[in-house]
Each structure stands twice: as structure tokens, then as C-alpha cells.
Design a protein that fits this description.
The protein is built from six helices and no strands. The chain is an all-alpha fold.
Length: 121
């Protein structure tokens, strides 16, 4: 998808992380760091790029500026991609995503990560 780039990803995360919430950002971070793993097949990387491109895209099914509801579609797309990428989400990827999430949201973010972790375990 032409909307995905690493720079656009970080711009979106930093600008909308409070609105998107911990679950959406954690799912996106897991995919972002999984994409960087050399062992991930191209087909899985293509799925991840598509999902992250949708997350970054200003053209959504639901407008992202609306708190909670605006990111429901993004979370759905990210969760589908997590299902495809689950075999490649290792402890190293999780650790990097958790560290970044805590930098963005603080230590309280750990309690909200559990639901996403269940989907990729």
C-alpha cells in the first residue's frame, strides 16, 4: 500500500497515540517490529504493510479523529494482520513493542497489553 512508510508510521503514532489508545498502538507496534524481522516471509510482510498502511491512511471507514470509535476499524485490520503474523511475533518483538508503548503511555499500559498478547500467543 502506498500509504506505508516508517516515517509516516511514527508520525501517526506520535500524533494520535492518546486518541487511538493502548490496544491499537500496541497492535501497530507489534506489527511494525515484526516487519523488521528478517525471518518473516514476504507474503506476511505484505499483509503487515497493508495493515500498517491502512492504519496510517487518512482515508478510513471510520474517521480517526473520533475518540475510541474512530479507531475500531484500524484495530480490526491490525488484529487480522496479527493473526497472519502471529507465528513470527517473538519475545524480542514483544519486548521492543512493550518498551515503546511504555515510553508513549507510561507503565500503566502493561495492564491493557494482555488482551492483544492473548491473540498472538
Amino acid at each position: 500500500m502506498h500509504h506505508y512508510s516508517e516515517a509516516k508510521f511514527w508520525q501517526k503514532v506520535k500524533k494520535f497515540c492518546a486518541t487511538a489508545g493502548v490496544k491499537v498502538v500496541y497492535a501497530a507496534l507489534l506489527l511494525f517490529y515484526t516487519l523488521q524481522e528478517s525471518s518473516v516471509p514476504k507474503k506476511v510482510k505484505a499483509t503487515i504493510i497493508g495493515a500498517l498502511g491502512y492504519f496510517i491512511s487518512p482515508f478510513d471507514a471510520l474517521i480517526d479523529l473520533t475518540p475510541i470509535v474512530g479507531y475500531t476499524d484500524d484495530l480490526g485490520v491490525l488484529l487480522l494482520a496479527l493473526g497472519v503474523a502471529a507465528l513470527y511475533i517473538n519475545d524480542h518483538v514483544k519486548a521492543k513493542a512493550r518498551k515503546k508503548l511504555c515510553e508513549l503511555f507510561g507503565e500503566d499500559a502493561y495492564t491493557q497489553m494482555a488482551e492483544i498478547d492473548k491473540k498472538v500467543s
